[in-house]
Amino acid sequence: MQVLSVKMAQPTTRQVEVLNKLNFEEFVEKLGNIVEKSPMVAAAVWSKRPFCSLQDVHKAIGDFIDGLPIYGKEGLLRCFPDLAGKLTREGRLSADSTGEQRSAGLFDLTTEEQTNIARLNSRYKEKFGFRFVLCARLNKKDAILAGLKTRINNSKDEEIKTGIGEAKKICWLRLVDVVQRERVGVIANL
């Protein structure tokens, strides 16, 4: 599984040790949304501790996801919100999704862009039975719209594979965020 190279401070071994010391409930609380609305993923990988690195945590998560049957992967993709969808407009996204969609420019869509994305999101869900998943933090609104237009022509198998790959990118960025926040919390408590 590919680990993304992202321009941000890389977590240290000491920061990963903080994750290793968390009890089950704390671990699930901290990592419960690294895969959108899927705390079961964090619950499953807790047993894989101790982790040697953040990449090791990410690999355990990826291995768990890859081991899911097709209907499990589809279910996981259904947990992600529509990009620039109803939850975005109503302000009901998770804090993680809000930040990700905001960074991609999805809070600043024109009426025409909003209508176009809503139409494509709807067609995509009708065709595949799950939501279009794309790592918004690594894309901007034009790339997201182009991705929707292109990927709607893929087969269901291609989209499950692509969507899961995008979910893993989101997971990696959220995992780094959690460890960075935890580091700030540890420093603040010194």
Which terms summarize this structure?
190 residues, EC 4.1.1.97, 2 domains, 10 helices, peroxisome, decarboxylase, purine metabolism, UraD-like
The biggest beta sheet reads: none
By DSSP (H or I, 4+ residues per run), the number of helices equals 10
Tally of distinct domains: 2
The mean pLDDT is 90
Task: Report the strand count.
Answer: 0
Whole-angstrom Rg: 17 Å
Mind telling me the CATH class of the largest domain? Mainly Alpha
Which spans have pLDDT < 50 for at least 5 consecutive residues?
1-8, 186-190
- Please trace the helix and strand order, writing H or E for each element: HHHHHHHHHH
Proportion of residues in extended strands: under 5%
What does this structure look like?
- This protein is mainly alpha-helical and 190 residues long.
- The chain folds into two domains: 13-74 and 171-188, UraD-like (Orthogonal Bundle); 81-167, Orthogonal Bundle (UraD-like).
- The chain is 64% helix and 0% strand.
- The protein contains ten helices and no strands.
- Helix 2 (24-31) crosses helix 3 (39-45).
- The longest helix is centred in the C-terminal third of the chain and has 33 residues, at 156-188.
- The model is unreliable at 1-8 and 186-190 (pLDDT under 50).
- Pathway: Purine metabolism; urate degradation; (S)-allantoin from urate: step 3/3.
- Catalyzes the stereoselective decarboxylation of 2-oxo-4-hydroxy-4-carboxy-5-ureidoimidazoline (OHCU) to (S)-allantoin.
- It is found in: Peroxisome.
- Keywords: Decarboxylase, Lyase, Peroxisome, Purine metabolism.
- It is an enzyme of class 4 (lyase).
